[in-house]
Amino acid sequence: MARNTRPSLLWSMMKGTVLLVMLVCTALFIAEHFVPELLPYSSFDDAGMTVPTAQVTTSAAAPFSFKISPASATGRAGDTITYTGEVTAQPGFTGPVQLSLAASAGIFKKTYDLGTLQPPYPQSFSYPLTIPESLPANINLNGVVTATSGSAVQKQTVSLTIG
Length: 163
What we know:
Shape: elongated
Number of strands: 9
Structural class: alpha+beta
Order of helices and strands: HEEEEEEEEE
């Protein structure tokens, strides 16, 4: 009896599916580890946004504190959202406070310099971000705003949902 040496259609489809999954996983790995600048400069507008309590991390004996809002926002590509905040300090503290934002969403990762505040304190700040047109809908950007002065570090989490 002659043996059929042609692969079956089902076998060919399975091999193709496995190959496609391997290619996608490889592309995601490469993008996440070797292309960190995919997230362009963004902006946020807090008009009409609800502001849940944010997670705040403080280093021991920090001579200053800060708060930022909104902790959570929703916007669409092209919208501008403005983060506002305030740095307060213990009496006698005269150091500068450097602010930065580390944002990520899947393979998108970028750190933004939000500027440096100089005394006197308390001091308010705002930072407008425009949501890039290139970001797709239905993703969540997670961020950590860090305030640093010398060895004192404080962090607050923020999030943005692209609608």
